[in-house]
Amino acid sequence: MEIQPELAELAQKNVDENHFGELIEIHRLDFREAASVFEAGSFDLVLSNPPYRKPGAGRINPDRQKAVARHELTATVTDVFEAARRLVPTGGRVAIVYPATRLANLFRSALDQGFTPKRLTIIHSYPGGPGRLVHLECRKGGGEELKIEPPFYIYDEQGRYSHAMLGLYEDVR
């Protein structure tokens, strides 16, 4: 689901060019309206890279498309979990990439909507650098155990993609 027409078209182009048409369907849709389109509990997994900055935090990009993607102008991470609560059955999962600086907000939103954080990976640009992003996987109605994964580095010490990053590209081919 993608609310912005240009990004929905780009997503569809990527699906077509990579021959994933039988596996992936792109819907130009506000995910907050997904419950009216899809049957409750019909997804096992919801993936999201939601807007991550508060409207008053930092400079809002003058490009509307970028502003909506980066700032909570039309949706929040809580909205993602509210929609996911309707879309996944008990035991279903939500995986989100979000700024490390807002991890407390991410946990609070997940728990408030009945999702338990189960797996956390801190994402670093470079070894030795600060973690700037997190990948959090939650389970609807899950137990309390949280697994902390090893750090994920995007680049190695020489500035090339890390083995882990290259592995992500290998996995999708």
The largest pleated sheet is described as:
6 strands, mixed
Question: What is the CATH homology-level superfamily of the largest domain?
Answer: Vaccinia Virus protein VP39
Poorly predicted sequence stretches spanning 5 or more consecutive residues: none
Percent of residues in helical segments?
Answer: 25-40%
Helices, by number, come to: 5
Order of helices and strands: HEHHEHEEEEH
Taking the alpha carbons of the first and last residues, their distance comes to 22 Å
CATH class of the largest domain: Alpha Beta
**Residues in β-strands, percent:** 15-25%
- Category from helices, strands and their pairing: alpha/beta
What name is given to the CATH topology of the largest domain?
A: Rossmann fold
Mean pLDDT: 87
CATH architecture tag of the largest domain: 3-Layer(aba) Sandwich
- How many beta-strand runs? 6
Radius of gyration: 17 Å
Please state the overall shape, judged from the principal axes of the Cα atoms: globular
Number of domains: 2
